[in-house]
Design brief:
The complex is a heterodimer. Chain A is of the alpha/beta class. Chain A is built from 16 helices and 8 strands. By secondary structure, chain B is of the alpha/beta class. In chain B, the strands form 2 sheets. A 4-stranded parallel β-sheet of chain B has the order 2-1-3-4, sandwiched between helices. Chain B has a 4-stranded parallel β-sheet with strand order 6-5-7-8, sandwiched between helices. Chain B is globular. The chains are: A alpha/beta, B alpha/beta. At the A-B interface, α6, α7 and α15 of A face α6, α7, α15 and α16 of B.
C-alpha cells in the first residue's frame, strides 16, 4: 500500500541497480522496457501543488496532464533516467514536445499507438511501433533485446495480470474481504514496483484471500458498482465508495482492467503478440473503434457484473470524456441505470462535496448506503 | 490607397468568383441525393481528393461553423449545446455545429446531412470525438484516418507513411462499399493534379506577403483560404487562385499595401478570433501594423508530388500539417516565414477552443523570441465565443505591445 501512495522513497533500492523509465497513460507496452533491463514506472501525477506546469500549459488542460508534467518538472525529475510517453489525444501529443524540451539530457521516446482499432492497419501499426521501441530501447542500453528476453518479460507480466485477475475475482465473490481501496492500491502498486517483488507479494495475498474468502462471501449490505473512466484520482474516492458499502465488480479504467485483462501470447512474433493483446483491451475513450462502444461496453460490464449502479470518473477538461458523456448519460437514462458522474481533478480540494454527492446518490437513488 | 470620399471601392474579381463558386458548391451538395451522389463530412485537413475523385461531395462542418462564428452566433449555438449536457470547454466549431444540429440556426441556410464521415486527426483529435457524436446521431459510418505525429526520425517517418497508405486503401474500400462503385485511380491522379496546381497558386498568393508594403494581410488570407479547403481537387479552384494571384500581383506591382505606411510586419500564431476580425485589423492598422501570415493559413499550401503513387503523396502531405509535426519543426516552419516575409513581431493567441494548436504556444513563444530577437505578445481567449473574450484587457494588451514595437523602432532609429 505504501508503494501505491508514495513510491519514490520505496524505490530507492531499485534505483541503485536499474535505470528508471517513466511512461504515461495509456498503452505503452511496459514489457519492452522491462525486457531491456530497465525499470518501467507509470507516471500518475502528483497531488502536490502546481507551481511550474501552469506556465507551460493552458489552464483548460486536463489535470492529469498538468499534474504529470508538474511531477517531473517540479518534484521528481531526478528520479527518472528517461521517458516513453504515449500519445493518445491532442493534450498528450503536445505534452510530449513540451516534456522533451524540459529534459534534453534524458532518454526520450514517443509511443505512437494507433488511435483507431477497427481495421487491420491498426494491428500492423501497433506491432511496428513495438518494433521501433524495442530497437530504440536497445540502442539506449547498448544491448539488443532478444526474443528470449521478451518471452521472459511477457511471462512475468502475464503472471502479474493473472494474479490481479484472481484477486479481483475473489473480491467480487467476497466483498467484505478487502475494500475497494485496498484492491485498487494493490493494482496501482504494480505500476511502480519491481514486477518480481509485486508478484511475490501478490501470491501471498491471493493465497491468503483464497483461504479466507469463505468467511466473507456474504453480499448483505453491499451493492455492486461498475467504475468507469480513465483513472480514479484522488484515490480517496475509493474510500468514499467503501463507506457507502459499494463494491466495485467491474471497470474499464486504464489503471485497472485495461491494464490487467488479457495476456500476451508467448510463442509467436513478439510485436504481433503485443498488438493482439492491445486490440483485445476494454474500450478507451480516445481510441475510436465502434462509436457505440462508449456505452455498449459499459452496459455489458453492468449486466455481466449484475451491478446496481455505474460511477463514472470524469477528469475535468478531458476532452474525450467531455464528448462521450452526454450520449452515455442519455443511454443510461434510457436503460434505467443509476449513473453517477464524478468530476475529479488532481489537486482537488472539494472532497467533502464529492462525499456528500456519493452518499446522497446512494441514499436517494439506490436506497442504500451507510446508516 | 485610402479611399476618397464618394469613391466606390472596386469589386474584387476573386471575391466575386468566390461567391459564385461557393453558391454552386452548396447547391451541388444540397441536391446531391437527387443526382445520385453522396455527401460526406470531412475535416479541413484530410485527403478530400479521395472523395472528389469518387463523386462524393465533401462538406466541412468547420467551414459552416466559421460562417456562424463570424455572424456572432457562437454563444447562442454553444448555449443550445450546453443545455444538452456538453461543456463550454469544447472547440467552438464543435459547439457551433452541435448547437446548429439542435436549433437549425445558420447564416447560410445550413448544410446537408452526411452519408459518411471522415475524421483525420492530423489537424486535431477533437474532430474525431465530434464526428463520433455525429456518427451516433446520424447512424452513418465514421472512418478515422489516424495520422501519428510526424516525428522527425526518417525511419519512423517511412513507417508512418506506410501506415497511412494502408489506411487510405482501407478508406477506398469503405467508399466503394458506400457507393457500390469501383474506385478509379486514374481519376484520382487527375484530381490530385488539380489540387497540386491550386495549392501552388494558393502558396504564391500567401507569399505575396513578402512584398513591402504587403498587398495582403492575414485577414485576406483567411477569407481566400475557404476555396482551397472545400474545392481543392477541382479545376474551379485552380481558376480561382489564378484569378486571385493576378489580382494581388497587380496591387503588388503598383506598390499598394493593405496598410498605409506599413511599419510593423507581424506573425499571428493560431486560428483567428473570428468575431473580432475587423476590429483587430483596424486596431493594428491605426499603428501601421499588419499581420501578414500564420502557419494556419499555410496549412493548405500542400505540395503534391504527382510523380509519386497518389496515396503516398496524399499521406505525406496530410501528415505534414503544422499541427501534426513536432513543436521544434513547427517552430522552424514559423521561423522560415519570419525570414521570408521579414517580420518583426508576433501576436500569439492561446485559443481555449483549440488545444491542438494552443498547447505549444507558450513554449513556441520562447523559441521564436529567442531565435528572432523580436517581441511577442500572448493573449488568451476563444476563437468563437465572446463570453471568453475580455475586450478591454485584450485591447490594452495589444496596444501596449504595439507601443513596445514603436519604442523599439524609435530606439533602433
Amino acid at each position: 500500500m505504501d508503494s501505491a501512495n508514495d513510491p519514490y522513497g520505496r524505490l530507492a533500492d531499485v534505483q541503485k541497480t536499474k535505470r528508471i523509465i517513466g511512461s504515461t497513460l495509456a498503452d505503452v507496452p511496459e514489457e519492452l522496457i522491462h525486457a531491456a533491463g530497465l525499470h518501467p514506472f507509470l507516471i500518475l501525477g502528483t497531488n502536490e501543488p502546481i507551481r511550474h506546469s501552469a506556465a507551460l500549459l493552458p489552464d483548460n488542460s486536463c489535470s492529469l496532464a498538468r499534474s504529470n508534467l508538474e511531477l517531473v518538472v517540479g518534484y521528481q525529475g531526478a528520479f527518472f533516467d528517461g521517458f516513453v510517453l504515449s500519445q493518445v489525444c491532442d493534450t498528450t501529443q503536445h505534452l510530449c514536445d513540451i516534456w522533451k524540451r524540459k529534459f534534453p539530457d534524458h532518454y526520450f521516446e514517443n509511443f505512437l499507438a494507433p488511435r483507431q482499432v477497427a481495421r487491420p492497419s491498426a494491428r500492423a501499426w501497433y506491432a511496428q511501433e513495438c518494433r521501433r521501441l524495442r530497437s530504440e530501447l536497445g540502442n539506449y542500453t547498448g544491448h539488443e533485446i532478444t526474443d528470449e528476453d521478451l518471452w521472459a518479460s511477457f511471462r512475468l507480466y502475464n503472471e502479474n495480470r493473472s494474479l490481479l485477475r484472481q484477486l479481483y475475482d475473489i473480491k467480487r465473490e467476497a466483498p467484505a474481504l478487502m475494500t475497494n481501496r485496498e484492491f485498487f492500491d494493490l493494482v496501482k502498486a504494480t505500476f511502480f514496483m519491481d514486477k518480481e517483488e509485486h508478484n511475490r507479494l501478490l501470491k501471498e495475498v491471493v493465497d491468503w484471500a483464497d483461504q479466507d474468502k469463505h468467511r466473507f462471501t456474504g453480499q448483505d449490505g453491499f451493492f455492486k458498482v461498475i467504475m468507469a473512466g480513465i483513472v480514479v484520482e484522488p484515490p480517496t474516492i475509493y474510500d468514499m465508495i467503501d463507506e457507502v458499502k459499494g463494491t466495485i465488480v467491474g471497470d474499464n479504467l486504464c489503471t485497472a482492467s485495461r491494464y490487467i485483462y488479457h495476456d500476451v501470447e508467448v510463442g509467436s512474433d513478439p510485436a504481433e503478440a503485443l498488438a493482439d493483446r492491445h486490440l483485445r483491451k476494454p474500450n478507451f475513450t480516445p481510441i475510436n473503434s465502434d462509436v457505440e462502444r462508449v456505452y455498449a461496453d459499459l452496459l455489458e460490464l453492468y449486466r455481466e457484473g449484475e451491478a446496481e449502479a455505474i460511477f463514472y470518473c470524469h477528469i475535468k477538461y478531458c476532452e474525450s470524456q467531455d464528448y462521450d458523456l452526454p450520449d452515455i448519460k442519455v443511454k443510461m437514462r434510457e436503460e434505467g441505470i443509476s449513473f453517477l458522474e464524478l468530476e475529479t481533478e488532481y489537486q482537488t480540494t472539494h472532497l467533502s462535496q464529492m462525499k456528500t454527492r456519493i452518499q446522497a446518490f446512494c441514499e436517494s437513488v439506490m436506497g442504500k448506503g451507510a446508516a | 490607397m485610402n479611399k476618397k470620399a464618394g469613391e466606390k471601392k472596386a469589386k474584387s474579381p476573386a471575391k466575386e468568383l468566390s461567391k459564385e463558386l461557393t453558391a454552386a458548391y452548396l447547391e451541388d451538395a444540397r441536391t446531391a441525393h437527387e443526382h445520385g451522389k453522396y455527401v460526406a463530412y470531412t475535416t479541413a485537413v484530410s485527403p478530400v481528393e479521395l472523395f472528389v475523385a469518387h463523386d462524393i461531395i465533401p462538406i466541412y462542418p468547420e467551414n459552416h461553423a466559421v460562417g456562424c462564428l463570424t455572424k456572432r452566433l457562437g454563444t447562442q449555438l454553444s448555449m443550445a449545446m450546453e443545455k444538452k449536457g456538453y461543456t463550454s470547454h469544447l472547440c467552438a466549431y464543435a459547439r457551433c455545429d452541435l448547437g446548429y444540429r439542435i436549433t437549425g440556426e445558420s447564416p447560410t441556410g445550413g448544410i446537408p446531412d452526411p452519408d459518411f464521415l471522415l475524421a483525420c486527426n492530423a489537424q486535431c483529435f477533437t474532430l474525431t470525438k465530434w464526428f463520433e457524436v455525429l456518427s451516433r446521431s446520424y447512424k452513418v459510418p465514421l472512418f478515422v484516418f489516424d495520422t501519428p505525429q510526424f516525428i522527425s526520425d526518417p525511419g519512423a517517418r517511412k513507417e508512418i507513411i506506410q501506415y497511412c497508405i494502408n489506411q487510405l486503401k482501407e478508406l477506398v474500400a469503405a467508399l466503394e462499399d458506400l457507393t457500390g462503385k469501383k474506385y478509379d485511380y486514374d481519376r484520382l491522379a487527375e484530381v490530385i493534379a488539380y489540387s497540386r496546381d491550386a495549392c501552388l497558386l494558393y502558396r504564391k498568393f500567401l507569399d505575396m506577403a513578402a512584398y513591402k508594403p504587403s498587398p495582403i494581410s492575414i485577414f485576406d488570407a483567411l477569407i481566400h483560404m475557404a476555396i482551397i479547403v472545400y474545392l481543392r481537387g477541382t479545376p474551379q479552384a485552380v481558376h480561382y487562385y489564378q484569378t486571385l494571384v493576378d489580382e494581388i500581383q497587380e496591387k503588388a506591382d503598383k506598390g499598394i499595401g493593405v496598410v498605409e505606411d506599413e511599419r510593423f510586419r507581424l506573425y499571428w500564431e493560431n486560428l483567428p478570433v473570428w468575431f473580432k476580425f475587423k476590429d483587430h485589423f483596424n486596431l493594428l492598422k491605426s499603428y501601421g501594423a499588419n499581420i501578414l501570415t500564420s502557419l494556419y493559413v499555410h496549412d493548405f499550401a500542400h505540395e503534391f508530388d504527382t510523380s509519386k503513387d497518389p496515396l503516398e503523396t496524399l499521406a505525406e502531405n496530410y501528415l505534414s500539417a503544422f499541427s501534426n509535426v513536432t513543436m521544434l519543426e513547427r517552430a522552424d516552419m514559423a521561423l522560415d516565414l519570419f525570414q521570408r516575409y521579414d517580420m518583426n513581431g508576433s501576436i500569439m493567441f492561446v485559443n481555449r477552443s483549440c488545444k491542438a494548436v494552443s498547447f505549444a504556444v507558450y513554449t513556441l513563444k520562447d523559441i521564436l523570441t529567442e531565435k528572432t530577437g523580436h517581441p511577442a505578445l500572448i493573449f488568451e481567449s476563444d476563437m468563437g465565443d465572446p463570453r471568453f473574450y475580455s475586450e478591454t484587457q485584450i485591447r490594452t494588451r495589444i496596444e501596449a505591445f504595439l507601443e513596445t514595437l514603436q519604442r523599439r523602432e524609435a530606439e533602433a532609429a
